[in-house]
Amino acid sequence: MADDKKKKKSKKEEGEAGGGSAKGSKKAEKKESNVFSKFTQRQIAEFKEAFQLMDHDKDGIIGKSDLRSTFEALGKSVTDSELDELVNDSPAPINFGGLLTLFASRMSGGSDEDDVVIAAFKTFDEEGTIAADKLSHALKTFGMKFSDKDVEAAFSQMSIDSGKIDTQKLIGMLTASGGSED
Questions:
Q1: What percent of the chain has pLDDT above 90?
Q2: Can you give the residue range of the structural domain that contains 98?
Q3: Are residues 104 and 122 in the same domain?
């Protein structure tokens, strides 16, 4: 029992060392990690994986060339001004913490899961349809990484015509809003 009192006393003394600065450092830690508390561990792992896939030059920062490479990998062409707008959307260089902060601010701005789903599928949209092969590749490559069997099962629930999936029908099938928001 005397040992327990010594342990408690030494912990208390450690906290008081430096004029109570331990309290201040706890606040700083809490503030820094606050963005992580907005997501589940699974979401953070998926965001980390996506960040690593987007960081083509592996410098820990997503820049204009990284974004261009990511869009090209998805079969989308973007202009320099569109890339500049995306990069300038962040007040600082986009490292992993900055990316999470951007996601958190978007989510707190009224965006919900349906909005995220709608936006994700609209990035694949070409004139009202999504190429089934590109969607299949994305499902197998990003996030949860579907297996061939998983993709086949998902595609069996979709109406695919000449290798194309109707974007609005797909969004309607996956969201409560039916994809009516633009």
A1: 18
A2: 24-111
A3: no
Domain presence at residue 2? no
Residue 37 tokens, joined: 């508390």
Q: What is the pTM of this model?
A: 0.46
Give the residue carrying structure tokens 């990316």: 99
For residues 28 and 105, state if they share a domain: yes
Under 8 Å between Cβ of 165 and 158: yes
Half-sphere exposure of 150 (CA within 13 A, CB side): 11
- Asked whether residue 131 falls in the same domain as residue 96, the answer is no
Secondary structure (DSSP) of 14-59 = HHHTTTSHHHHHHHHHHHHHHHHHTS-HHHHHHHHHHHHHH-TT-S
Per-residue confidence band for 133, with pLDDT thresholds at 50, 70 and 90: very high
